[in-house]
Amino acid sequence: MAKVTFTVNSKLFRKQMRTIERYVDNTMPKIALKEYKKNTPKDSGNARNKTKRRQNTIIGDYAYAGVLDDGLFPNPPKAGTGKTRNGYSTQATKGMATPTIKELTKQFNAFVRRVR
User: Using an 8 Å Cβ cutoff, are 74 and 89 in contact?
Assistant: First the structure.
């Protein structure tokens, strides 16, 4: 049976981990807010304007934030305006959090691959 050995350069590894930690703490929250707002449906612009970031938390400071994100609109729509489908807005068919998390994962993985 073949024996496999390897060594880890601990100084380089710590440096890479600090770089990743700074990216997660400083850059990812900004990306998250931008993506979340981009995925927020726009009617009057109220939802996008009232979505803010406090440290690492995105806050939708409007009464219907959960309705938009969780797809809780009546299904079928009461007024028949065509703005909703399956409880979600036609502009955000998966809500806002799910596509934002998907994009953050993609961005994080790409960043980690670039870290040297």
Answer: no
Residue 1 lies in a domain: no
Signed CA dihedral, 61, 66, 71, 73: sign only: negative
The distance from CA 12 to its chain's CA centroid, rounded to whole angstroms, is 30
DSSP per-residue letters across 4-42: ------HHHHHHHHHHHHHIIIIIHHHHHHHHHHHHS--
Q: What is the pLDDT of residues 5-60, one digit of tens each?
A: 988 899 999 999 999 999 999 999 999 999 999 988 888 888 888 899 988 888 88
The whole-model pTM stands at 0.78
Give a yes or no: residue 8 inside a domain.
no
**The tokens of 59 are what?**
């806050």
Burial class, 45, CB count within 10 angstroms (exposed 0-12 / middle 13-18 / buried 19+) = exposed
Q: Could you tell me how many residues make up the chain?
A: 116
Per the structure, how many domains does the chain have? 1
